[in-house]
Write a structure and sequence with these properties.
mainly beta; globular
Length: 122
Amino acid sequence: QVQLVESGGGLVQAGGSLRLSCAASGRTVSNYVMGWFRQAPGMEREFVGGIRWSGGSTYYADSVKGRFTISRDNANSTVYLQLNSLKPEDTAVYHCAARRGIAVVTHQYDYWGQGTQVTVTS
């Protein structure tokens, strides 16, 4: 089992920034893929981006490319999502997730965190 705990959400004005953290515990995640997803009220869950823990390759949805950045801290088994140039349409609950294998751009993740709310005001 892998436990994931997100933190760092909050209320920010449009154009502002936030950094979300996802701390992983339980099994080692060094050969996992870590993903970030978001879900706004009444909307389907959306893939935001992901990273292969081994090698650090990153992938992003077109809607966030150039504004969001994913990174990892091997020593602390933590993945980060840096959100810059935030827009009101980025408002959602952001979840991190983990999966075995190499595919990143998929919704088929094995473990999910509880989520952290990001609210962007205009």
